[in-house]
Amino acid sequence: MASLVGAWAASHGPLLVRNWHEVPADQKDRITAGFRDLGRRLSAARPDVLIEVSPDHWANFFLDNLPAVCFGVGEEHEGPPEPFLKAFPHRELRGHPGLAMHVARSALDAGFEPSISHRLKLDHGFCIPLWRMGLERLPRIVPMIVNSIEPPLPSLRRCIEWGSLLKKAIETYPEPLRVGVLATGGLSHSIGERTMGDIDEPFDRECIRLFSEGAPAELAAFLEMRLPLTGNGAHEVRNWAVAHGAAGCRGFRLVDYLPVPAVIVGCAFAAWELPQAA
Ligand SMILES: [Fe+2]
Predict the structure, then answer these.
(1) Cα(99) to centroid of ligand 1, in Å?
(2) How confident is the model over 56-83, as a mean pLDDT?
(3) Which of 24, 35, 110, 272 has a CA positioned 20 to 30 A from the CA of residue 13?
């Protein structure tokens, strides 16, 4: 049987690449260290496959077809379409159709209704964290796109339930795969709205406290209440909620948090401590 060997989360944002030259040196060092720390943890867990949870930033879907949740079930996925990611070292990323289809079937059996795609483009939300983690060997990727962009959005409670479902699906997959979950996005940021550029540090710190303590009901209640009052980009914390559910809501270890005005994102890096798989 497959096993869940780790769960991690990191912020993303196009300006982490496009505006990197404007980030102060001390913040560059901390961001780099945060990604590299997660990269070391991920490499130590030796996942064969990574279920990567991120929103789609209009690279695949638009208003005419906008799934709440979509799994990439293809043999391979396209690399990032954004011109500023031309230097990303992979133009194609290998998928794992067997596990991806098993997760989709397990979800449907459990009353969840994801969509699937045989050919996804993995945009900056997927690729910047993978790139900045400095992984020597890229695991196969099963993308899980969670709509965090265009309302109506999946509820926070449902996102946590999705995480539990991922864990169960992994543990019923018949091959002895090592599987990790990597969530990307958040924390607070504001894009294309009146508050563009604002970073809501009190929101970020309360998020981190609740994720650190576990407490899924309190976490979901806080996020449902507070998300409408902060920048629209903070909705990407839904992906973190999926990873939290996958990790059994056991509380994560914060690697680092820093608000970074040059990239207009509250940048956080975290790892859930799971019982060590052999
Ligand atoms: Fe994003």
Answers:
(1) 25
(2) 98
(3) 272
Residue 110 to residue 103: CA distance in whole angstroms:
10
Structure tokens at 110: 């459990």
Residues in the chain: 278
Rounded Cα distance, 179 and 113, in Å = 22
> Please, are residues 186 and 239 in contact by the beta-carbon 8 Å criterion?
yes
- CA angle in degrees (0–180, nearest 5) for 70-4-111: 40
Crossing angle of the two packed helices 156-171 and 97-109, in degrees rounded to 10: 120
Mean pLDDT of 126-150: 97
Neighbouring CB atoms inside 10 A of 193's CB total 11
Q: How confident is the model at residue 275 (pLDDT cuts 50, 70, 90)?
A: confident
Q: Which two tokens stand for residue 235?
A: 């909705």
Ligand 1 centre to CA of 185 (Å) is 5
Give residue 278's pLDDT band: very low, low, confident or very high (50, 70, 90): low
The pTM of the whole model exceeds 0.85: yes
